[in-house]
Design goal:
alpha/beta; 9 helices; three-stranded antiparallel beta sheet; 11 strands; Rossmann fold
Length: 293
């Protein structure tokens, strides 16, 4: 997918309708007149809403300010977590995406590109990696660091709760490290799932100290020092149309990673199948009706 094809693949992040691309390729316009700019280095500003909700705006500001020191700060955090092997753990959850050469992958919240580099290695040669972030400065850092040799790489500023792609666009989607603070987290899970083809993988993770460690001395101190680690795993936000859901605790059991495979529709239970061995009609539906009487 070249740059022209990438721009053509983008849709309105709110309505999913087609965008009109200017002849010079520098702007995209939605049917309601909203204009999305293409930067000089090819980074497309697809942020929606234009005026971010307060929590998202705060996170954007903080990451913009931290972009130059971010990598060292993150590594320090992981060094404190029982000397967790950062490289091995990152490889572990990128492997969960089950990527192969030639595939199309999306990373939401690419940051400075630490995980992005592993994604690029998985889909090259010939694949496509689309990298997004809420922070312009973080995404510029990623663009400066990453090699596009033998792979198509595209960048856009975006809100993970409003993805500018049609349904079933990607083979896999990845996000790590920010979803706990999303203003519209449930919508983000729906979006991450929507843009993945049936059979593809979604891998998502963030802070959350494992329940069995929260009352131990050093982890209790961690929870007090940084409230982000108190977050609960947002299992309730996972859409219904998934299967093979798995939950992993990583980085000293202070972060979670969930993985699941997307299905074309949500599963259902056959509540009308007669229960065998009965000399009268009995089903789950009938039992439920009796239970509510």
């Amino acid at each position: 997918m070249n740059q022209k094809e990438f721009l053509e693949s983008l849709v309105c992040p709110l309505t999913g309708t087609a965008l009109e691309i200017a002849e010079d390729g520098k702007t995209l316009t939605s049917k309601d007149g909203t204009i999305y700019q293409v930067g000089e280095t090819g980074i497309v500003n697809m942020l929606y809403p234009k005026e971010l909700l307060p929590e998202d705006a705060r996170e954007q500001y903080l990451y913009d300010q931290a972009s130059l020191r971010y990598d060292r700060g993150v590594s320090w955090v992981f060094e404190t977590l029982n000397h967790s092997d950062e490289a091995a753990t990152r490889k572990f959850f990128i492997d969960l995406m089950e990527l192969k050469p030639g595939m199309n992958a999306l990373e939401v919240g690419a940051g400075t590109g630490k995980d992005s580099a592993l994604i690029l290695d998985k889909v090259r040669p010939g694949g496509t990696a689309v990298l997004s972030d809420l922070s312009p400065n973080m995404l510029k850092r990623a663009q400066e660091k990453l090699s596009a040799e033998d792979v198509n790489v595209h960048y856009f500023l975006g809100n993970g709760s409003y993805l500018p792609f049609a349904d079933n666009t990607f083979d896999a989607v990845f996000h790590f490290g920010g979803i706990n603070t999303f203003s519209e987290r449930k919508r983000a899970f729906d979006e991450l799932t929507r843009v993945v083809r049936p059979g593809g993988k979604v891998v998502v993770g963030d802070e959350s100290v494992a329940p069995w460690l929260r009352n131990t001395p050093t982890y209790a101190t961690l929870l007090k020092a940084n409230p982000l680690f108190r977050a609960e795993v947002p299992i309730e936000d996972v859409p219904a149309n998934v299967e093979n859901f798995k939950l992993h605790y990583v980085f000293g059991n202070a972060f979670y990673v969930m993985e699941y495979r997307v299905t074309d529709k949500a599963p259902e239970v056959n509540i009308d199948l007669p229960i065998p061995g009965k000399d009268f009609v009995d089903t789950w539906r009938l039992r439920a009706e009796k239970a509510t009487d």
